[in-house]
Amino acid sequence: MRNRNLLDRLGSNLHHLALAASLLIFLVIVLGGITRASEAGTACAGWPLCGGELTPPVDAMGRLAYVHRLLAGLGGGLLFLAAGISVLRRRSERLIILPLTGAAFLMGVQILAGRLLTLSTSPAVVTALHLGFSLLILGLTTAATAAAYARALTGQISLRLRLNSPFSRLALFTLVTVLLMLVSGAVVAASGATTACPDWPLCGGSLLADPAGWMNMLHRSLVALSGLLMAGLL
Fold it and tell me: Can you give the pTM of this predicted structure?
């Protein structure tokens, strides 16, 4: 009976739980970018603990990586809990259960990718995929949070997502384009392709470039397209 009451309370507060998970995942992405840029991950050897210890390292870079892993664990735990509650208590509400379970699955993939990035020198594509999965997890969790809040505030929720208006379809296309822009930016940064195209907006005043330059130009094109699409949404 106590377990059932606890599940009922968690189910009725799923919108708060999903919001907490979304906020933590956002902080994890921000700290992950700082950790990657500052190479703080090298100061936190081993996985999942730093040097096999529960206590944080003494140096600042190690502490940064430690906090990033700690928040990742907390965010992942909240996400798995929210996904489990949605399966047990919101099974008929597809706009809540599908994003949360999808995000939980991707979080499992992220854990493996994070281990790979920590324990080995990974190619740029792995870094880009790590960021891409993080953004997808955040997007799915945020979508589930919005649906859960709509359910809590109005008492009802649509059975499926509808893209009937031109604005909604443009918004979805813009979202996908921005995701590709961010992932391509991660590839450019991790592969060192930035130095292959030092000029702006063209590479050496020409559209022709080596493969690294082409990657840079692709990213710049996605930036321009994203800006135009977002302006179109205004």
Answer: 0.81
Distance in angstroms (rounded) separating the CA atoms of residues 49 and 55: 9
Work out the burial of residue 108: count CB atoms within 10 Å of its CB; fewer than 13 is exposed, 13-18 middle, 19 or more buried.
Answer: exposed
Which class for 170: exposed (0-12), middle (13-18), buried (19 or more C-beta within 10 A)? middle
C-beta separation of 171 from 177 below 8 A: no
Give the per-residue pLDDT at 2: 62
Q: Phi/psi of residue 111, each to 5°?
A: -60, -45
* Amino acid letter, residue 111: I
| pLDDT tens digits, one per residue of 51-81 | 777 777 778 887 888 888 889 889 999 999 9
CA 52 to chain centre: 27
pLDDT at 136: 92
Helices vs. strands in the chain: H and E counts, helices first = 7, 0
Cα separation of the two ends of the chain: 51
Asked if residues 38 and 64 have their Cβ atoms less than 8 Å apart, the reply is yes
Nearest partner of 142 among 57, 22, 44, judged by Cα: 22
The DSSP element (H or E) to which 155 belongs, if any, is: none
Rounded (5°) CA angle 192-195-197: 120
